[in-house]
Design goal:
By secondary structure, the chain is α+β, with helices and mostly antiparallel strands. Helix content is 29%, strand content 34%. It has 8 helices and 13 strands. Strands 1, 2, 3, 4, 5, 6, 7, 8, 9, 10, 11, 12 and 13 form a 13-stranded mixed beta sheet that branches. Helix 1 packs across helix 2.
């Protein structure tokens, strides 16, 4: 028998070990943040008192998200993943979500389709090595400055109109952890965009990276700020880009990013306020949208 229970803080080492085994690149702090976002919506599967899988959710109101679904290799194909998914979907349904999203690797798409998820578009992954510094002149005239704590409320309001849901607690947590790697672009007191760059030792992960649609110059300047601010030991930078935002795809490719294996963004339920993909240049993370 497999038992699904609420995940506890003491289970986070197990989750981190799982992500390390799958080579997803999550740090212990990444896992902890995902837990803090929605502690009641994280679940672990046990068999014979042994932890064999887990899944995380986050509730944005009418939009919910599922991520970090991993089953130990020796217990795959035995229905553990199905039980975890059912628990996650039920939890978000109880919270009143009307739409649930996730990012799926290609081989998992048929599995999620059986739950009613439908493919929306590809969620691309890009990597850049050799982070050469950009010239200072490329962004000094674009009204970009470090993001301050006092900006978070207006940034969250700006972000919600493009992402399609309020994710204040996500932005707050990321800012708390990466304060010196957050920037905002403004003109005449009007937000044009913002970017958050998460550093893990000598690797950087961009996201969220959000701009007003068609403000390609602002988006480029924000990314160049991140590249310019990379420390000397930095070796790689990653960013997730929605395939429907062709401007973002062309931009990262023009700056030397190369594509790595992609995933598929999927949704189930009744569409509510939809995201404006043309304003999403970089996703926050596959597990939170």
């Amino acid at each position: 028998m497999v038992r699904i229970r609420q995940l506890k803080r003491q289970d986070l080492d197990f989750v981190h070990e799982s992500t390390q085994r799958e080579q997803w690149g999550h740090t212990k702090r990444d896992v902890e943040r995902c837990f803090v976002y929605e502690p009641d919506g994280c679940f672990v599967a046990e068999h014979a008192s042994q932890k064999v899988g887990h899944v995380f959710t986050i509730n944005y109101g009418e939009l919910g998200w599922i991520g970090l679904l991993i089953v130990n290799p020796e217990h795959r194909g035995k229905g553990v993943g199905t039980l975890l998914m059912e628990k996650a979907i039920h939890y978000l349904g109880e919270k009143g979500t009307k739409t649930i999203g996730l990012d799926a690797v290609g081989k998992a798409v048929p599995v999620y389709q059986r739950f009613g998820f439908k493919k929306a578009y590809d969620s691309l992954r890009f990597r850049k090595q050799q982070l050469e510094k950009e010239k200072q002149e490329t962004f000094t005239t674009t009204n970009i400055r470090p993001l301050k704590k006092d900006d978070l409320k207006t940034v969250a309001e700006f972000d919600s109109k493009i992402f399609g849901a309020n994710r204040t607690r996500v932005l707050q947590a990321l800012y708390n952890d990466f304060e010196k790697q957050c920037w905002i672009a403004k003109r005449n007191h009007k937000i044009l965009g913002y970017i958050i760059n998460r550093k893990d030792e000598n690797v950087y992960r961009i996201g969220p990276w959000v701009c007003r649609p068609k403000h390609l110059e602002t988006a480029k300047a924000l990314l160049e700020v991140c590249m310019n601010a990379a420390e000397e030991d930095a070796v790689e930078m990653y960013v997730g880009v929605l395939a429907t935002n062709l401007d973002a795809v062309e931009l990262v490719e023009s700056l030397g990013f190369s594509q790595t294996p992609k995933s598929v963004r999927m949704f189930m339920g009744t569409p509510t306020q939809t995201a404006d993909a043309m304003g999403i240049y970089g996703i926050a993370a596959p597990e939170i949208g």
